[in-house]
Amino acid sequence: MASVTSTIYDFITIGNVFLLFFFLLILHYLMVLYEFRSMPPGPRLTTIPVLGNIFSLDFKADLLSDAFKSLRDKYGNVFSIKLGSHKFVMASSSEAVQEMLVKKSGDYAGRQQTYFVEKLTLGGKDIALGNYGPAWKFHRKLFITALRQYLSDVPLIESRVSTQAEKLVKFLEDQSGKPFDPADCFQHAVANVICGITFGEGYDTTDPRLNKLLKLNVDIVADTESNQTILMLDFFPFARYLPVKAYDKLLKPMYEIFDIIRVFLRQKKENFDAEEPVKDLITGLLLAKHRAELESDEVKDAFLSDDYLVNTIEDMFAAGYETTSTTMKWVIAFLVNNPKYQEDIQHQLDEVVGERNPSLEDRPNLPLIHAIIIETLRLGNVVPLAVPHFTLTDTTMCGYRVPKDTIVFADTESVHLNPKCWENPTEFNPYRHIDENGKLITNQGNFYPFGAGRRVCAGEPLAKVELFLFLSWMFQKFNFVPEEEGHPPSLKREFSGTQFPSPYKIRAVKRK
């Protein structure tokens, strides 16, 4: 035994250790080259064991999308890297995004179930982050059906949004032309609409529990540091064992949110009557559960456990208020910076609506309102990088191999700001969406604010209704001007899951 130990000891020399290290390094790079064979180009010799290409990213970038800019400049609009143990592809060209989201939507329909996603969604039991499969398809269909039923009742949806638009206008009047930050009032206005859809008539953020629900969601989104930290760390499986406070900072409020939703769910269950018409999302979910139980469908019944239901309800609330209220913040920021377009909107409102309140029936005759919304979504890029997709099978992109279990980002912001797709893309110009006859151009292509394909945002129709009514009411009654003359809101972007303008203040001056 001593002789074996002695032999090993004699072998461990500096030269032999160096040779072993060099051999393992060569072996590592050969494995990397094999793993990425025929995949989109990218850095290979800088791929570090365990960490991957983490040091190829730009850590000085303020926005996540900018962290990949140097790689895009070097390797083109479609490139691949390794982050932790994951293969990763960035699709930044119009052709790549179209192929990924539309032409081969089924191949790219998955979601990677990372440690944080699993914890955040109680085991992948939600729609936005859930992986593609029977449970996801069942819940998405249920959600879309419930939302369509609600939106089909035009008088009801118009009444609920207009009620909140009226309250928003009253808030603006109460500011008496003094400077204010519009973020909070926009969030409450949109959240109150979502509350009515989700929890039922009479529920809004004046309820302390729903107000807390909104505040917890707002705080999660506002914590840009924790969100960006987790977004990167989640590519590295070992990160879960590190003393990283960001995980607890986001998971704790999320579990509080679930606890609040469970209270409402329990109350709805106690008063549930399958013979009564469905008037809110929770009742619709309970009715689906009731029917599954009558059919003795154990699979569907399992998909309708409380964990699935609270995730679906939170998806509706969080996604519903955040993206829409953020879009409204961008609209005001852009139009205060471009007052001519604000005047044009008001001229059209005066001609079509006059002194009465705008309604959904006015939509065909107010194309400029729609054009403003479209241009804001294009230039503001509320979701600059679509939620990462995950390949469910071996597939291709622009002729390159993309193997199963690859994380793929659709860089829709690059498409929206591509001069080959849009003339003067960094310029805010709503008239690019109006034809020579003054009609709205509804489908120009290269436009993905809500994604596309199988994972397209289910809330798009509702968001468009809310944006149209809120903005029509506001611009009919107010001019929005800078906090100080000559100092319009900054258009600097911040990112935390969604991309929003840096906080700003404006004044709402009542029109005469």
UniProtKB/TrEMBL annotation:
Residues the entry annotates as binding heme: C457
Signal peptide segment: none
UniProt-listed GO biological process terms: hormone biosynthetic process; lipid biosynthetic process; progesterone metabolic process
Q: Where are the transmembrane segments?
A: 12-34
Q: What Enzyme Commission number(s) does the record list for this chain?
A: 1.14.14.16
Q: Which GO terms describe its molecular function?
A: heme binding; iron ion binding; lipid binding; lyase activity; steroid 17-alpha-monooxygenase activity; steroid 21-monooxygenase activity
Q: Which family does it belong to?
A: Belongs to the cytochrome P450 family.
Q: Which InterPro entries match?
A: Cyt_P450 (IPR001128), Cyt_P450_CS (IPR017972), Cyt_P450_E_grp-I (IPR002401), Cyt_P450_sf (IPR036396)
> Which cofactors go with this protein?
heme
Pfam families, per this entry? p450
Bilayer topology term:
Peripheral membrane protein
Keyword line: Endoplasmic reticulum, Heme, Iron, Lipid-binding, Lyase, Membrane, Metal-binding, Microsome, Monooxygenase, Oxidoreductase, Transmembrane, Transmembrane helix
Name recorded for this polypeptide:
Steroid 21-hydroxylase
Identify the gene encoding this protein. Answer: CYP17A1
Mention any one GO cellular component term assigned to this protein in its UniProt record.
endoplasmic reticulum membrane
Q: Which SUPFAM superfamilies match?
A: Cytochrome P450 (SSF48264)
